[in-house]
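Q: My labmate handed me this sequence with no annotations at all. I'd like to see what the chain might look like in three dimensions before we decide whether it's worth expressing. Could you predict it?
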Amino acid sequence: MSRWTAPNLIAIAALLVAATAPASANTLAHRAPDAPRGPKATGPVNPGFETGDLTGWTATGDAFGPGAVSDTDTYWGGPFHHKGRYHLWGHAAEGDDATGTLTSSSFAAPSRMSFAIAGGWDPDRLYVALVRDSDGRQLLKQTGMDDEAYVRIVWDTGRWRGQAVHLEVVDRKTGGWGHINLDDVRTPNDPVGGDPDQDDNGLTFRTLGQANQPTGHQYAADALRPQFHYTPYQGWINDPNGVVQFRGRHHLFSQHYPDAPLWGPMHWAHADSPDAVRWRELPIALTPAPPATPTDNSGIFSGSAVEDDDGNLTVAYTRFTDTEAHPGAKPETVEIATSTDGVRFGAPREAVAEPPAGSGAGFRDPKVFRDPADNRWKMVVGSGDGGRGRVHLYASDDLRAWTYEGVLTEGDESTGAMWECPDLFPLGDDGTWVLLYSTNEGGESVQRYAVGSYDGGKFTADRHGVLDGGGDSYAAQSYRTGDGRRLMTAWMSDWNVKEPTRVNGWAGAQTLHRELFLRPDGGLGQRPVKEADTLEKDTIASVKDKKVKGGWRLGRGDTARLKAVLDLNATTADTVTVRLKAAPGGAEATELRYRKSAGTLTLDTAGSGYGTADSYTTRVAPAADGTLSLDVLIDRSSVEVFTGDGEALTARVYPRYQESDGVEFAADGGELHIKSATLTAMGSSWSD
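A: Here is what I predict for the chain of 688 residues:
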């Protein structure tokens, strides 16, 4: 398991609403269309704090003193993305330990309203609420997402239209992320606040906010939820676990915390599929013991699954024990549990009681496999010591009693101090073996692979590489299918904690399943699983032999697949760009750029929306005929890029606007020759 814990950053949350006092008979003729009875909905006084102070707002406690209205435009992780000069920064006045409330002036509830929010996630102690004046009832409320960068929340308030309401910013949380931020409350017909559904350029905000989430698993209703990737309906996931084909169905377990869209005591979520692309949610498979203390994070960390010798499904995993809550306990051991039906698991049994020597950095994530050399069960476990990542090897005849076989392989100081989620398997017909592992190098999470040989006790690497050159793929795990393919999936998430989907109650996704193969140069390649073709629906646009000077739009698709072949020999521009999730006027886009002179492919998320502004580059050589083939999977909050030679770049992206769905080509300083390009709509992996 990648033992992910939310960084001790600072939190913000914000809400905004609009209206005024009841209208007199003389004003009814001039009432806003939004309020058939009552006053024009002009929203709260000082809706964006542009007075530079708390004019129009009433504070209690010390969280929202005069210093909370700030003109600071950047924090340690980037810009706030607030509107205007000022915003309410809940940390600025007295830090995270301060508590209090901030109440707006009264206004008439409009049909819709929106606001920008940031700060900590805590629905009970940290939120912005819409409160009815007459009885003090909280009608709607929204917490933050453990991030300082603002996200736009849109509320449907039509049920209370015309009623006198106000906003209340509540901070009852102390400690890390114990603050909330607010800016730019927008209501209809408000000349100060602006249109609640559109920005100042007329682009339409995607509707986000916990209040908009329907009951039941209606995946299509969520503006940022991927439609053909596995996500939790609510809560948190990270590493994929126990990927296996069992009795004809593909099983996917995931590290999961069901109670919040944050890392917490780990469970195993469970889904299965007939084809590795269409998923059915199953009951939580593994559940940790109740916490001994409020801060007890003991749980069931990552692991693997196999069909055992009796035809049952057996899983091996790390049992993590929080030693602060359980003094004297071993922090990491290996346990095994078995299911006869693939859904319900029996009582666990301990397989490895304590880590071997040389495990100072950790000991976790067992991956079990059948070793063809001696037909015994083997298990690799991630570890590290003295600044060097390593993998330990165990052996068993019956999946019950395990013996330690020694260190399988280890790295050096350049490849990370701890190797997580190891996966060892043969690939191809020539005795080649592959090792996958995930690590942290210089503060950056990296998925690596090594190709080499395995003799039953040691792995020797002949070639090393990065499994996915994008920034948002980690903890990959693979399995062999009945038809002999090696399929893989990985945790698709933003390690910079940019998880705006937390405002909808969930965080984390798994990549599309991929098929692994050996490239002619000896490296490890990957491509989308062939069953993804069955999700393709109507063709949106298709061209052949298209020449592009400047820019050109192929079509629009928020959940789509782009297959393109670029003729680099006939292309005179040195840099060519594919703009994905592009908004009109260049307001935002995710850019995929190929530079001929350098042979590099870059996925740039600097202008993608709410997520991390970064760029990821890998080297890609054109094919022998001078073409560059691209296969790009575009989902609501992700982009996965595959090249013809098996390179991959993955990133989570979170567009702000509904119009951010364009697919465009551009040439810089010359002409681009598109040999062919097809944009196809993709269907959902889920049935609502």
